[in-house]
Amino acid sequence: MARNVEFDEELAVSRAMDVFWKKGYNSTKMRDLTEAMGINSSSLYNTIGDKHQLFLRCIKHYTESRMEAATKQMRLIKSPLKAIEKFIQSSVYTITNEPNSCLAIKTTFEVATGDEKVQKIIKSDNEFTYNLLIDLVKKAVEQKEITVTQDAEMLTDYIINNFTGWHESFIIHQDKKRIKKMADFLVAQISQ
What is the pLDDT of residues 111-144, one digit of tens each? Predict the structure, then answer.
C-alpha cells in the first residue's frame, strides 16, 4: 500500500503558485508542481486534487493575500487621496518590479475567459479593488481633496483600467520610466 507524504499544505500551495506565476497555467506540468512542492503526485491528488483544483487554490491564495495587504496598507493612510496615490504607486511597483508581474492580470488573459471558476475568483478580486477605490474616491470628494467632473464610479473604473494597460505596456516595452510617467499623469489628473 502506498504511503501518503505529509506536508505543509499552505507552503506547498505557495510554491505551486510561484510555478504558475512564472510559467502560466498552460505551460505548467504536474511534474513542475510536484517538484516545486516537494511531494509526489499521489499526495497532491489525495489532498488537493488535480492541476486545475491546485490552480484555483493558488489564484484564491494570491488574490486573498493581496486583498489583505491592501486593506492593511490603506487603513494606515488618513488622507483618501494619499491612499489612492499609494495604491496606484503600489500597482506600478508590482507591474515594473515583480519578476512575474501581477498573477491576477496574467490569469485573466490566459485562463479566465474560458474558465468560469477562475473568472469568479478574478471577478471577486476586481470587485474588491473597485470597492476599495470607490470608497476612497467618495471620501476624497467629500473631503474636497479631489473634484470629480464625472461620477465617482467612472473615475474608479478609469483608475483600475489603467493598471491593465500599464501591464501590457511593460510587457511590450520593459520601460519602468514610461509606466511611472503614466502613473504620475493619472495622479495629476485625479488631483485636479
Answer: 988 999 999 999 999 999 999 999 999 999 999 9
Provide the Cα torsion 2, 38, 33, 119; round to 10°: 100
Would you say 55 and 118 are in contact if contact means Cβ atoms under 8 Å apart?
yes
State yes or no: pLDDT of 4 exceeds 70: no
Buried b (16+ CB within 10 A) or exposed e, 48-71: beebeebbbbbbbbbbeebeeebe
100 — pLDDT class (breaks 50, 70, 90): confident
- Mean pLDDT, to the nearest integer, of 57-69? 96
Q: Record the cell numbers describing residue 151, joined without a space.
A: 461620477
Q: DSSP code of 4?
A: P
Positive or negative, the Cα torsion across 82, 163, 118, 49?
A: negative
Domains in the chain (CATH in brackets) are 63-191 (1.10.357.10)
Written as one letter, the residue type at 156 is T
Angle between helices 51-75 and 30-37 (to 10 degrees): 60
Residues 6+ apart with CB under 8 A from 73: 86, 87, 90
Exposed/middle/buried for 121, CB within 10 Å: 0-12, 13-18, 19+?
buried
Would you say the pTM of this structure is higher than 0.70? yes
